[in-house]
Amino acid sequence: MKLTVLGNYGPYPKAGGACSGFLVDSGDAKILLDCGNGVLSRLQQYIDIQELDAVILSHLHSDHMGDVMILRYAANILMLKRQMDSPIKVYAPADPLEEFERLRFNSSIELIEIQPTAKLTISSLNIRFKEVQHGCKNYAISVEHGGRRFVYSGDTNSVDELAEFSRGADLLLCEAGLLERDEKQIRAMHLTAKEAGGIAAAAGVKRLLLTHFQPDMKLESYIKEASSVYNGIMEFAGENKSYFI
Ligand SMILES: [Zn+2]
Ligand SMILES: [Zn+2]
19 falls in which pLDDT band (50, 70, 90)? Predict the structure, then answer.
C-alpha cells in the first residue's frame, strides 16, 4: 500500500504547509487518516474527492479535523450535482461529543463513531484502533494490507501502549510534537522525538516516520534526537512524499 503525506505540521502549519493528513491507497481502497487544515487541497492533487472510501480521524483537535468542515461542503455540492452518489464516511471518536456532532452535515456525510474493540474492514484494508492518552480521546490506528502493516499514532504521550500496539509493524508513523528541551508543562500531551525513537526501538518496527512538527523548528532536530535511541530506517514524513509499505 502507498502512504502519502499531505500535511505534517501541528498545531499550526508554516507558510505553505498543512497540518496532519495521510492518504492510504491500497489499489482497491483509498482512505484519509486525519484531515487537518490544508489537507483537502493537497488531497485533490492525488485523487478526486469522490474516490475516497473513508476518512478516519484519530481525534477531534482542529489540526486533525479542521478540513472536514470544508469537506462537508464539497460532499454536499458533489451530491447535488450528482457527481457523487453516496455520502462520504467519516469515522471519529465521539468524544468530545460537541465536536463530534459538529461534523454532521445533512446526508452527504455519514458520521460513524469508532468502535475501538471492533476491526474495521474497508475493501482490502484491515484497520484496528487502540486508545492512547492525549488531551482528548485519541486512537492510534493500525492499517494492514496483504500481510504488511503500519501504525499511525495520532497525537499522544503514551509510550508503552503505543509500543505494544506497534510491535513488529513494517512502519510507524509517529508524532514527535516536541523535543526533549521543551518545557515539561507542554509535554503532557505529546511525545518528544526521542520518545518516538524509543517506541520504534522497543516495538521493533522496520521503519520510523516522524510527523507533527512545530512550524518554527528545523526538521533535522527531530531526526537527531530520535536517532540517539533508534538505529533503524528513519526519516521525517515529508509533505507530498509517498512511502510504499
Ligand atoms: Zn495535533
Ligand atoms: Zn491533538
Answer: very high
In the reported structure, the alpha carbon of residue 57 is separated from the centroid of ligand 1 by a whole-number distance in angstroms of: 11
Q: How far, in Å, CA of 83 to CA of 98, rounded?
A: 31
pLDDT band at 184 (very low <50, low <70, confident <90, very high): low
Cα torsion angle, 60, 63, 47, 31, sign: negative
CA 149–ligand 2 middle distance (angstroms): 23
- Residue 188: band (very low, low, confident or very high) from pLDDT cuts 50, 70, 90: confident
Cα 119 to ligand 1 centre (Å): 24
What phi-psi label fits residue 83: left (phi over 0), alpha (psi between -120 and 50 degrees) or beta? alpha
The HSE-up count of residue 54 (CA atoms within 13 Å, CB side) is 21
**Centre of ligand 1 from the C-alpha of residue 22, in Å:** 13
Distance 10 CA to ligand 2 centre (A): 8
Q: Label residue 187 by pLDDT band (50, 70, 90).
A: low
Tell me: the pLDDT tens digits for 85-144? 999 999 999 999 999 999 999 999 999 999 999 999 999 999 999 999 999 999 999 999
CA of 24 to the centre of ligand 1 (A): 19
State the chain's mean pLDDT as an integer: 96
| Ligand at shortest distance from the CA of 138 | 2
Domains in the chain, ordered, with CATH? 2-244 (3.60.15.10)
- For residue 121, the Cα-to-chain-centroid distance in whole angstroms is 17
Residues with CB under 5 A from ligand 2 (ion): 61, 155
